[in-house]
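Not sure how to ask, but would you mind making up any protein sequence you like and the tokens describing how it folds?
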Amino acid sequence: MKKIFTSLVQSYHWFFLAMVFVIGIGLIFLIFPGESRFKYEFQKGSPWRHETLIAPFDFAIMKTEAEIKTENDSLLKEYKPYFTFDTLVASVEINEFSLAISKFAESNEKIKSSDMFLEFPGILEDIYKTGVLQQSTDSYKELAGKSEIMVIKGQKAIKTPVSQLYSIKTAYTKLNDTIRAITGNLFPEFLKSVNISDFVVENLYYDEQLNRNEKKQLLDKNSATKGMVQAGERIIFQGDLVGQEKYMILESLKKAYETKRGDNIEYFLVIAGRLLIISIFIVMMFLYLLFYRRDIFDHKRKFTFIFMMIVLMVFMAGFASSVKAINIYMVPMAILPILVRIFFDSRTAIFSLMITTLLIGFFAPNSYEYIVLQMVAGVIAVFSLNKLHKRSHIVFSALWVFLTYSIVYLAMAMVQEGNLDTINWVALEWFAVSSIFIFISYPLIYIFEKIFGFVSDVTLIELSDTNQPLLRKLAEEAPGTFQHSIQIANLAEAVIHKIGGNPFLIRAGALYHDIGKTFDPEFFIENQAVGMNPHDQIDHLKSSGIIIDHVANGVKLARKYGLPEILISFIETHHGTTQTDYFYKMYQIENPKEDVDRKMFTYPGPLPQNKETAVLMLIDGIEAATRSLKEKSVDNIRELIEKMVEQKIQSNQLINADLTLREITILKVTLLEKLVNIYHVRIEYPK
């Protein structure tokens, strides 16, 4: 039955991995471009390393971005902005002005019969015919450098010199000065009755939407191509240098080739090729995990996380390449190796980066340049963020990534261009945006920890704070055990620094490994007062049960407080499957005729599964035994360490831990040095 159950579990695991594998391939396939790929790779400034290239069909030569920009700037320079002329404004204001003049003339008997006022509306009409702007022409950025505008009157657009246009201020001055010259001494009296400024308003408006559309139509007429290459025409010889002109011809051929559709048979071949390429890269990642990181391969959430990150980064790059406003270099590829490094290891991070970059490089523009930039920047990100336990680490990592992008890009650009003036300096802005996005990895760490159950160094440091509720509980209810745990944590951290491993993990594990002793703290010697031992009041079998139960009690308490499983493993394994030898032997002495079952005096396990838990087991036993030594000399401590380590090896407690003999030797030396310093007998000073 057990074999059947194990077989079902294994089958389900393989089925789950197969589902992740198929879904990953399917999602990446949807992202990949559907066009055929150009089979030649080339870089500006490098020799053409393929055979002599002949044009397979007619195609247009594209202009460079610089050429298009220059031509567009020239067109916009000659462009005449459009202003809308409001005819209703002039008629209304002129009529109002005429009425005001008539009232003034009728109210004054001296000038009632004068004809001089009849020409004033005509003056205002001439001003409005030219056009009145809200402000002076210098205030309109649209008129900068322009000598003429197009004034829209009805269905016609009339070309008008900018110098002839009025602003409200100049129109008022013109009307005011003209009336003053005509009326002479009557002007002050006229102004008292007629306020000239009331009749001078704007009748010429800049139409934003109309001008935007006109500019677009003008620029759309500017062709993006220049000349043609005929089918059969030689494009480049093998070994020729790919200069600017040849580069644009090759880019034009590449674009024409990738947008050219074949018949149905060719299209299905393209689909088959895409599926095959994606499958090969995904299989490479699959095999890497199978052979080199079996712990990730056998862990569903870890396996899913890595493939999810690969698909997510490919999706983001695919989206960026399809949107003109976003450059593909803005996608923060460095986040992938950073997150994988934080949760797993550097080798897996770099391999994941390589697979993802190769997938994206298949459809990224300038594939070689893209792959080189992302690989170098990603590797630097991994090296610069070896540990993440300070906020400044992520800042420096982002800075290093930006510098790496910039240096590598400029180096490649200098080789390709050979001229600093033609380098696309805007690319540095793209790299800056990508590097800034690295900061979102900090909140992503927290999110992925909660979703996938991972534990980062930041979380381990937080859990190692002795003000954590569970550690405060241990300090208050079992103070001796708390001090013992701190001692173990210090010793274990010192050993791990020497042999390699995660010091944050082993410190946190050491601090929590004995939290189960809070249930019956008085039954553990480090918490007992002198002369008081509750074990004296009960039989040895029950005493053994209480001691052994601190492991199970610790696991229950850890799960109640939400400790990560990786820390719970320290609680479960720190005694492995060893025995409570003292109570076992005492029980044998008191019951010589009874066939004693060793299992009743044996910890349930499991055995330590990694280096950190194995080191904790060794140090926990050695530190406790050292405290019981009557004479703590160097020889006695050395002998005790050798004996305790040998016992663990002989009882097969370390068979599942990746701890080498060399590392065990370093552990012995380090522990001897530390324990001698801790228990050193001071010289007695004379009175």
User: Anything to note?
Assistant: The chain has three domains: 2-35+263-452, 75-219, 457-678. The radius of gyration is 42 Å. Strands lie at 53-54, 59-62, 82-85, 132-133, 148-153, 156-161, 166-167, 204-206, 225-229, 234-236. Residues 2-31 form the longest helix (30 residues).
